[in-house]
Amino acid sequence: MQVKTIHMSNLHFEHEMWKRELAFCDDELIFLTARLEEVTSKNTDHDMLREVEHFQNQFILQKENIDVFTHNINAKEHELSEFAKDHPVASDHVHFKDHNGLRDNMEGFAKNYNEMKTEFRRFLTKWM
Asked: Are 69 and 105 in contact (CB under 8 A)?
């Protein structure tokens, strides 16, 4: 099986893109949490409170995912940086092993995060 390689600048670009996406999601969770608190303050229905707990758990889980992915990306960036320091001329020409696993995980995160937001919008429509 042939290992796919990728240029350092493309890895770095993808890492930066992901870090920005994760930072946006992290900020957005603050906004979504505030909206959830607003819904909670206006309703006390037992069924609604179960759904509130579900979203509280989802927001915590998403925040943990964001933290883990950010850490993993920063670790990869550190590896690239160390390589560039040790090999300043070669870094422009070297190809690295592609990070398919991380890319797949980020794509899965984005899909799950967007599904959670869609579910949350439906919840808001139902209870607001």
From this structure: yes
Tell me the β-bridge partners of 5: 97
| Distance between CA atoms of residues 70 and 64, nearest Å | 10
List, as one string, the DSSP characters of 56-84: HHHHHHHHHHHHHHHHHHHHHHHHHHHHH
Question: For 18-74, what is each residue's pLDDT tens digit?
Answer: 999 999 999 999 999 999 999 999 988 998 999 999 999 999 999 999 999 999 999
CA distances 69 to 26, 31, 63, 65, Å, are: 12, 20, 10, 6
Output the six-digit token pair for 25.
């999601």
Interatomic CA distance for residues 97 and 11, integer angstroms:
10
